[in-house]
């Protein structure tokens, strides 16, 4: 009995801390609530018809067949982490249905999906929403810890009402979870830069492995970890000492171990994996029909996709904040830039173009802009140029954002979102 009481006390303590956090951070709590509501609204769009690929959902269902291998020509198009997450969510649904008598067997459970996939699709989309909400939380905590509360609230506001992220949270995809792991890695890298401990190296390695197990190209995030490690050097001679530290190699090895542990089928199907991985890379580099050959991929993202998502005012000021980070002598700013820079280089090497590939870039753009804007505003206030006032979202095409959200939910409500996927 005493252990049970201790467990109850521990749970009560955690709940109390969470309640205190949300009370203390009321503005953030309101923005998070707004963001979650905008993402859950019309979550059942299109159902019972399924107008999205929902690859993680379908491969999660394949794991239920213990006799037939889930491997086919498309299995290795993505790593398997999101497949397992969907499978575990499906297992919860099945157990609940089995206990209540809705499903007499696994066969009955799978048959119900074939008849009407609505329940599992809503559960699958809810997972995307949880990851997207988690991204908002981690971004807020990152700026609150390493910048200011003003910057954290600004970032939370921008992330909560971004129509691209709201639309992608209505899909069962891999890009939304990848964005979460990328922002979480930023938090850990900044923590590592401030106080390099072995535990933080291990945490960074785990998150890099999780990101790579979500989408293959995220393995390049090891470069951000290496850069953060080397930024500790104050001289050329110190670089050699840092390169000899075991903490870095432990983190790199752990990232690879996490990736392989979450993708065990690679070992038994090496040929299938290499064939699909090569084909996918070739497909990304070749592109798709309708691409303007006279316009580079980076030009498309920076001049079309980014302004469409952020608006021109925020796009221009965000790029200005990136330039300010680049010329800064503060090394932590290079840590912030490292993750989006890696993704931008990868995207620039592809001819394949899709707005959803910009999810990570847009998240980091908002974070960088919020931090820079809040710092500038605070500086002006200290000089007496501006009077101190509560943090408010500045005019960054607010009307356009509202119109974008209204238009998106109009499409979702009429079941026509399939035409924009």
Low-confidence stretches: 390-395
Order of helices and strands: HHHHHHHHHHHHHHHHHHHH
Shape: globular
Main beta sheet strand tally, sense and closure = none
Percent of residues in β-strands: under 5%
Tally of extended strands?
A: 0
N-end to C-end Cα span? 54 Å
Rg over C-alpha atoms, rounded to the nearest angstrom: 23 Å
Output mean pLDDT: 88
Helix content: over 70%
Structural class: mainly alpha
User: Number of helical segments?
Assistant: 20
Structure description:
Mean pLDDT is 88; it is low at 390-395. Helix content is 71%, strand content 0%. The N and C termini lie far apart (54 Å). Helix 6 (118-146) runs antiparallel to helix 7. By secondary structure, it is mainly alpha-helical.
Notable features of this structure?
421 residues, mainly alpha, 20 helices, 0% strand, globular
Could you provide a short overview of the structure?
This protein has 421 residues and is mostly helical.
Give the SSE layout.
Elements: H1 2-24, H2 26-40, H3 55-62, H4 81-100, H5 106-115, H6 118-146, H7 149-160, H8 163-168, H9 175-194, H10 198-212, H11 222-230, H12 236-243, H13 246-261, H14 265-268, H15 270-286, H16 297-310, H17 312-327, H18 331-348, H19 359-383, H20 398-413
């Amino acid at each position: 009995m005493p252990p049970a009481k201790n467990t109850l006390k521990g749970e009560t303590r955690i709940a109390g801390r969470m309640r205190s956090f949300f009370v203390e951070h009321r503005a953030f709590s309101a923005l998070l609530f707004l963001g979650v509501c905008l993402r859950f609204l019309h979550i059942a769009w299109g159902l019972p018809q399924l107008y999205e690929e929902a690859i993680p959902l379908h491969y999660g269902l394949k794991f239920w067949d213990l006799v037939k291998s889930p491997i086919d020509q498309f299995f290795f198009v993505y790593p398997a982490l999101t497949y397992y997450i969907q499978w575990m969510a499906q297992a919860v649904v099945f157990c609940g249905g089995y206990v209540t008598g809705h499903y007499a067997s696994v066969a009955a459970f799978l048959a119900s999906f074939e008849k009407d996939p609505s329940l599992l699709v809503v559960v699958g989309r809810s997972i995307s929403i949880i990851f997207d909400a988690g991204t908002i939380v981690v971004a807020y905590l990152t700026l609150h810890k390493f910048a200011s509360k003003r910057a954290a609230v600004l970032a939370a506001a921008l992330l909560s009402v971004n129509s691209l992220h709201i639309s992608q949270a209505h899909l069962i995809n891999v890009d939304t979870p990848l964005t979460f792991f990328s922002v979480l890695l930023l938090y850990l890298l900044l923590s590592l830069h401030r106080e390099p401990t072995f535990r933080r190296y291990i945490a960074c390695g785990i998150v890099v492995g999780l990101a790579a197990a979500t989408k293959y190209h995220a393995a390049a995030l090891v470069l951000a970890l290496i850069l953060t490690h080397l930024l500790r050097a104050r001289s050329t001679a110190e670089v050699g000492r840092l390169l000899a530290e075991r903490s870095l190699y432990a983190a790199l090895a752990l990232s690879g171990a996490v990736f392989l542990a979450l993708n065990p089928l690679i070992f038994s199907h090496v040929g299938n994996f290499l064939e699909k991985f090569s084909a996918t890379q070739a497909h990304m580099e070749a592109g798709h029909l309708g691409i303007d050959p006279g316009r580079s991929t980076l030009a498309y993202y920076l001049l079309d996709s980014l302004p469409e998502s952020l608006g021109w005012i925020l796009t221009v000021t965000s790029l200005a904040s990136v330039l300010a980070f680049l010329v800064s002598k503060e090394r932590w700013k290079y840590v912030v830039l490292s993750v989006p820079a890696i993704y931008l280089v990868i995207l620039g090497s592809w001819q394949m173009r899709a707005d959803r590939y910009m999810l990570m870039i847009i998240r980091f753009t908002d974070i960088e802009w919020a931090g820079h804007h809040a710092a500038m505003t605070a500086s002006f206030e200290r000089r007496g140029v501006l009077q101190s006032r509560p943090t408010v979202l500045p005019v960054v095409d607010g009307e356009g954002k509202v119109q974008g959200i209204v238009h998106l939910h109009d499409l979702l409500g009429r079941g026509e979102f399939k035409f924009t996927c």
